[in-house]
Amino acid sequence: GNSVTQMEGPVTLSEEAFLTINCTYTATGYPSLFWYVQYPGEGLQLLLKATKADDKGSNKGFEATYRKETTSFHLEKGSVQVSDSAVYFCAPFSGGYNKLIFGAGTRLAVHP
Amino acid sequence: NAGVTQTPKFQVLKTGQSMTLQCAQDMNHEYMSWYRQDPGMGLRLIHYSVGAGITDQGEVPNGYNVSRSTTEDFPLRLLSAAPSQTSVYFCASSYMNTEAFFGQGTRLTVV
Fold this sequence. Notes:
The structure holds two protein chains of two kinds.
Chain A: E1 3-6, E2 11-14, E3 19-21, E4 23-26, E5 33-38, E6 44-50, E7 56-59, E8 62-65, E9 75-77, E10 86-92, E11 106-111
Parallel strand pairs in A: 2-11
Antiparallel strand pairs in A: 1-4, 3-9, 5-6, 5-10, 7-8, 8-9, 10-11
Chain B: E1 4-7, E2 10-13, E3 19-25, E4 31-37, E5 43-51, E6 54-57, E7 64-66, E8 76-78, E9 87-94, E10 101-102, E11 106-110
Parallel strand pairs in B: 2-11
Antiparallel strand pairs in B: 1-3, 3-8, 4-5, 4-9, 5-6, 7-8, 9-10, 9-11
């Protein structure tokens, strides 16, 4: 079946550092890909998405590019802030009916 | 806009008790689903629905029942709670082939 492998956390960075969180997946075809973010005590929010190969999703300074050759969707941000501290989930659609497959999540902690 | 509303936010059950987790959305989404979140395991799909009257099992359906009598509501029933069902439960809704909107979650503890 489809699966997602995410970079293990926690990731600890200083403010203004560069962030990369790796995500690779296995899937049938070319599913839409999503990054969700979960702030402490809250539900998941969509951070960005890409619906076809070579698409770049972006939001709040975060970016991720749909790479079908490497089946990857790595999340990047050039300069992180303390407010970016959260858990990040990579999630492709899987098997139709809008079912999402989630990675284990990567916890990011940003220090001043 | 209310979006996806889950109730209750917190619940403690004794082993063997039953309860229903409520989920309602006001976006007229046809797709709704329930996930559970456990430490180190991400979110796993319990049940999902593609419209009123249509439900199906996800990855971890055992011990849970669902029904969908209206577009807006998708309750999750625990028939006989077990400690292994201690988790955080999220309801989500979406249109076809678009991103999911999540509720704030229900933290359930079974003792």
